[in-house]
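This entry is passed on directly below:
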Amino acid sequence: MSASPPDGSRSSRKLKVRTGCITCKIRKVKCDEAKPSCKRCSDTGRKCDGYAALPERKPAKFTTTDRSVVTVVQRRPSSPTPIQSRAVRRLAPATLIVDANFLSPALSGEDSPWVEFFSMRTGPALSSVFSHSFWSSTLPQLSVSEPAIRHALIALGSAHARYEADATNNQVLKAAVRPNFVLWHYTEAIKHLQARLEGDLEASDVALLCCLLFVSLECLHGNRILVMDHLKNGLNILRSSQLKELENPSSSNANSKSIKQEVRPLFHRLDSQTTLMGYPA
């Protein structure tokens, strides 16, 4: 079990908010669940971000048969420095709200609001460049059973929240993203990924999805060198898997093939874009 991210006070984490509006979940306060906007938000002058109300679904599970050892960039991520780039401007407040209530029972009170934020806000923002269901549903569901993916997803979601908070002066989001919160989850993602690969050499799908999340996070931070490192690792995983599938078509199960088919176009698109910019992976 990994330690909790630093916040300077443990008393604020005693209440585990499982239901209620998204704003109250992020603030970790009890919601009165009034509709359409909760009274707690209205009385304090906050914007109520609504409720998650889709039926409960089971998290997706997957396995792989790729036995290659994947090298992961082990450098500590640098402090975020948001840049005004086309990629960052895509991360504007999303208008499409997608429910992630099915995630709550399986996640801790600390993680659940952030996985939901990713599903409802970050995923739709990123879906302009890739499949909406992949970002808003597939990745959040996989994060339930894969700690490495979960921490990487929370790191990206909270970095997006901080960018959005700065852009819109949203005090709720500013208060939610504590100092070093993004860095802590980024580091935890790398630690869990290393442990996952040491214990299971067939975990290349986990590494591939983490690479994608790391690429997205470093794009948001404007760290070109780390973007290229993670992109290169992801492309190496795809090439290795493709060679093994050619040699032995039955070496990968349907779930593993489906994941790679989903992410392969995006990795190749990123590779083409960086090559055109003079930074081939």
